[in-house]
Prior knowledge:
Layout: H1 2-26, H2 29-34, E1 48-53, H3 57-67, E2 72-78, H4 82-91, E3 96-98, H5 101-106, E4 112-115, H6 122-131, E5 135-139, H7 146-158, E6 164-167, H8 174-183, E7 191-199, H9 211-217, H10 228-245, E8 251-257, E9 270-276, E10 282-288, E11 296-302, E12 305-309, E13 314-318, E14 333-336, E15 339-343, H11 348-353, H12 370-384, H13 392-411, E16 414-416
Parallel strand pairs: 1-2, 1-4, 2-3, 4-5, 5-6, 7-10
Antiparallel strand pairs: 7-11, 8-9, 8-16, 9-10, 11-12, 12-13, 13-15, 14-15
Helix pairs in contact: 6-7, 7-13, 10-13
Amino acid sequence: MKERIDERTAERRDFLKTAMAGLMVLFTEEELRAAAILDQEEIKGPPVRFGLIGIGQWGRELLTNLSRLPMARVTMLCDTYEPALKKGVELAPKATTNTDYRRLLESPEVEAVIVATPTHQHREIVLAALQAGKHVYCEAPLAHTIDDAAAIARAARQATGVKFQAGLQGRSNALYRHIIQFVQTGVLGAPAQVYSQWNRKLSWRRPAPTPEREREINWHLTKATSIGIPGELGIHQFDLTSWYLRSMPVAVQGSGSVMNWNDGREIPDTIQVVFEHQKSLRQIFVATLASSFSGSYTLMQGSDSSLMLRENRGWMIKEADSPLLGWEVYAKKEDVHNETGICMVADATKLLEAGKEPGQEGSMEPTRNAPSLAFYNFIRSIREDTPVAATALHGYQATVVAIRAHEAVMSGSRVEIPASLYELK
């Protein structure tokens, strides 16, 4: 037995010496591509012809990223609000426009659809798009109810000849995909707890020329259509924890209040959530739209090291008694919360090609953001029949977690999440 343990320990150490030192200093282009970290290879075939449904604030952000990709061509835009379409055309001047998504789905000029409408409108549009034989990229959360999310995920799984990708952009984030390799070898040691936060002073309320339009665009603030901060913001950090630790929550306790934006909204602007995982692991999530202090990050603490992740930066802080693996001397160090953290660099290869040392010279930020990489992965999946970065099941399970968390916040109680709920029947 001891020989087998020693053998596994040696394998883990060898991997870490190669992967950690390599990805930060010496990893080759071929290895990075094999690990699907950079995704810099040219995609075979013509550009994918996209239709975008929902040209709101986030839809325009997605359109901006999509229009910069040479392997994508935006052929049609759809929104029920004409001024939104005009703003969309400024970003995609060659695209035609329509106010009825069904006309977009009928068009032979549209191969793939991005659904960026309000969450409660996803089900009808996604099911129709799959039925029409279109590839679908659906923003997260998949839906505002578990039944609707399950219907979308089942339809995506049953559809033949089309790709479906959930908008869990963290699963395309080059930094996150870089670091997960190390986490899953056990560098954290025994996981102790996870702390996540999302803070930004943001009202979520937007002005509109008519009361009807105001109700439409402020759907975030109404109980009937919104799953609140957990669904619209926290879902990405919940999914990150489940993905990294291979663990789904079994229950969640929540609370929330309107602390700043006292404008008649029905959804809290400040919340606290505690997820229970197996083996007594807890994930704490706090968020507020009343203050921007400290921004957003996820901190995973373990007996050997802790990992702090922001969207474009990551640090690992080792415990004094954790094993020395040999790669640490190569890594750039920075002060993080009065500790010395080891910086994680996702774009090491590009820096090496420029004759620079990763972590020592050049930008520490990835050269592509998560939405851009998500679309790149989706396009490659369509053209080369490769797996999508975030499957329908990933999207469904993350949506279940977010909806249960929102229920806990709204009720101020503990809500169980049975394992059977994560299964698609």
